[in-house]
Every structure is written in structure tokens, then in C-alpha cells.
């Protein structure tokens, strides 16, 4: 039930950490992540589900966090860019560095999350699958070719490591 | 300008009965909130007129795809991703899976729901044309009971539909046995992908001895509602298939649709593209 301020209590896990927070139920998951939890790796681009800069995983599914009211994150596991690297960069992040998949960086956190989500579903994606998996993530710098090369590079690295 | 959040309410519910009870006690006060892919965009733009919502995202009674001998039934809160991943739908109702896979990108498909697409009642919606040509029925439930009705005729005007204030869309039912129909789906937008439709087409036809034994044609974005081209269907039914039937059918189609000029396209372009899509479908039928 909402309290007098209209806020509700939401329990969720973010990058493996169990949290209880208070927020307005319609507050965007994006704003809760960035402003309450200070996880500013997740970016806001368009704020209307077109650009993918705010992509995070919710229970393993890629979502635009600008379109998720935080009430619907109740009981879920959220993964943001801050939860991707361990002691070292994740191979997908490393591949973006090595193949020039990053320029200004605004699309990068969302692009990495979309790439990770794609590789979880298709460990050896075809070019069509890569294009479809990243289709909701816009980049105005790279022209995408280096991003595709980064994903392919990540596949090779992950294959070597396994 | 962004919306003032404290003016809005989004409430959790235990189950479908609670939703129906609240819709019944305070008809018109509550609307449903599923994947939010339309509502959150309006909210952020400060253009969400309704203020009070019940959260039905992942409500178990609105989920799941059930396959019975005569029909396939889809819960209204089934996402596009779930539609795409269902093997029966992919085999028997490929136009619906096509529509699902051409609606936004993965993140949108993980959140957008089929019931939301119907209830949002956009004339540019991409799944209703496919549902219409499969002769889909929808189940509307309220605390007073349940009723099934065809999707055809559900919309009466722009954003107007046969849905009472205490009712919700619970399920969508597709009659089976249509897999031998020839079917075609095509969405025309500014780009091949990630675009809102300028014109959307779904068509299916049963062909016997070179004749069109039966045909269903549906269009998005050419009328105030997602539109089934009944008159054009009537003209084509029983005809011998050849490219020669195209022009008359195109004429009839142009008479029965009512496209408009708007931010995405023009009436002329839409009329022409709708005719071209029909021609393409007829050519596809003749090439077999």
C-alpha cells in the first residue's frame, strides 16, 4: 500500500545485492537506479524506448529501464553495467575496447547489456541475430560496424575461455 | 513536460478477482497497466490523461498460450517475445509471429503485450491486422461474467471499442486449421526495421483449383481503426487467380479505406502503398 507521500516499498536485487527501497510506484526504474542507487552507468538517451541507452536486464530479459515503472521491478533481479565486470573487465567489455566499439560512450552500457543478453540467448550468433539483438540500441558515433566486430570478437574470446 | 508523479497511482493487485472487483466497484476509475511500452512514453511526455492504474504485468491469470484441438488461446498479458517463441504459433499463425518480431526491438518485445496492443487501440498497431485475418476472438471479462466476441467489429472509431469500463481483455482465441491458407504480412515504415508503420498489411487466402475460395485482408494505418477490407475481400472471393484481378481489387480497396495525412505519412502515399501491398499479395497467390 502507498504511504501518505504516495511512495511504496519495493524489494529487489540489483547486481546481486538485495535492496529495499521506497519510491513512487510509477517512478522509472532508470531514475531509481541513477538517482537513489547512484548507479549512473545506465544512461538516459531518448526517454521513450527508442534508443536503448537505458537497457538493463530484469530477470534475465533485456528491458528499457526508462519504460519500467519501479513497482514492476518488485521481486526481480536487475543487472546493470556496474554488475558486468568482475575483478577484470568482462570479455564483452574487453572486446568493445579492443575493436573500437566505443566512442563517446553514451550508448555503450546499453550496447554491452544488449550484447550480453544476445550472447546468453545465442552464444554463436549469426550476423542477422547480432543485428536483431542490437537493433534497439542506437549509436551515433561508430556506424555500428565496429560494434558488430566487437560482438564477434567477444564470441571468439568467450569460446577460447570456455 | 514530464508528468508530476504524485498525481498518478499504480497499484499492485493479488489476483484477477481483485482486479475485476475494483473495476466493478469503481467503473471508469481504473485502467490496466501491463508492459508500459505505450503508457510510460505518454507519462514521460506529460500526456498520460488517465491517472489510476492497476498493475497486471505478469498476472498469472492473464498469461500463457494454450493449445487445444480446435483453437489456440493466448493470455492477454503474453509478451511479443513469448508469442515469437511459441512453436505452435510459429507453425500455424506465422503472421502473428512476424508482427511480434517486427514490433520494436528485443527490449520492447520483452515488455509489450498482445492485450495491451489491442486495448491501446492504435490504428497503427501491428498485431491486430494479423489477428483479424486469423479470425481472432477476444474474451472480455468483468465481475458480471465473461463474453467472447470477434475482434472484427471490436473497434468502432478512433480509440473507440466495445469494452465496458468494468471489463478487461483476458484472452485471445485463434481457430486452428488455417495452416494451408497462403499468408502474407508486410509492414511499411520509414525504415525496414525499428519504425512505426506507415501502412501495415496482413492477408491470407484459401486457394482451390486456381480460384480464391476464401480471403481475408487487414490493414493498419489506413483508417481510424485497424481495418478489415471486407468489400475488397467480397470482390475477390471466387475469382480465378491472375494478376488481371489486381486493378479492380485495388480500386475497390481505395474506395473502402480512409487514410489521412499525419506526421508519419500522407493519405496519397498510404493509399498507393496499400494498393501495392494488395497487388503483391495477389501476385504471391498467382506465383504458386
Brief digest:
The complex is a heterodimer of chains A (162) and B (288). Chain A contains five helices and five strands, in the order ββαβββαααα. By secondary structure, chain A is of the alpha+beta class.
Secondary structure topology:
The complex is a heterodimer of chains A (162) and B (288).
Chain A: E1 8-14, E2 17-23, H1 29-36, E3 55-58, E4 61-64, E5 77-79, H2 91-98, H3 108-121, H4 127-133, H5 145-161
Parallel strand pairs in A: 1-5
Antiparallel strand pairs in A: 1-2, 3-4, 3-5
Helix pairs in contact in A: 2-5
Chain B: E1 9-11, H1 16-25, E2 31-33, H2 39-44, E3 52-55, E4 65-67, E5 71-75, H3 80-84, H4 87-92, H5 94-101, H6 106-109, H7 114-120, H8 127-133, E6 137-142, E7 145-150, E8 155-157, E9 160-161, E10 168-175, E11 182-188, E12 199-208, E13 211-220, E14 227-228, H9 230-236, H10 246-256, H11 267-286
Parallel strand pairs in B: 1-3, 2-3
Antiparallel strand pairs in B: 4-5, 5-10, 6-7, 6-10, 8-9, 11-12, 12-13, 13-14
Helix pairs in contact in B: 9-10, 10-11
Structure description:
The complex is a heterodimer of chains A (162) and B (288). Chain A has 162 residues and is α+β, with helices and mostly antiparallel strands. Chain A has 2 domains: 8-80, Ubiquitin-like (UB roll), CATH 3.10.20; 91-161, [2Fe-2S]-binding domain (DNA polymerase, domain 1, Orthogonal Bundle). Chain A is built from 5 helices and 5 strands. In chain A, strands 2-1-5-3-4 form a 5-stranded mixed sheet, covered by helices on one side. In chain A, helix 2 (91-98) packs across helix 5 (145-161). Chain A starts with 7 loop residues before the first strand and ends with a helix. The model of chain A has no long low-confidence stretch (mean pLDDT 96). Chain B has 288 residues and is α+β, with helices and mostly antiparallel strands. Chain B folds into 3 domains: 5-55; 60-175, Uridine Diphospho-n-acetylenolpyruvylglucosamine Reductase, domain 3 (2-Layer Sandwich), CATH 3.30.465; 182-286, CO dehydrogenase flavoprotein, C-terminal domain (Enolase-like, domain 1). In chain B, 32% of the residues lie in helices and 25% in strands. Chain B has 11 helices and 14 strands. Chain B has helices spanning 16-25, 39-44, 80-84, 87-92, 94-101, 106-109, 114-120, 127-133, 230-236, 246-256, 267-286; strands at residues 9-11, 31-33, 52-55, 65-67, 71-75, 137-142, 145-150, 155-157, 160-161, 168-175, 182-188, 199-208, 211-220, 227-228. A 5-stranded antiparallel sheet of chain B has the order 4-5-10-6-7. In chain B, strands 11-12-13-14 form a 4-stranded antiparallel sheet, sandwiched between helices. In chain B, a hairpin with a 6-residue loop joins strand 13 and strand 14. In chain B, helix 9 (230-236) packs antiparallel against helix 10 and helix 10 (246-256) packs antiparallel against helix 11. The radius of gyration of chain B is 19 Å and the shape is globular. The A-B interface holds A 2, 5-6, 8, 24-28, 47-50, 52, 55, 61-64, 66-69, 71-72, 74, 114, 117-118, 132-133, 135-137 and B 3, 5-6, 8-12, 33, 35-37, 40-41, 43-45, 55, 57-58, 81, 104-108, 110-111, 193-194.
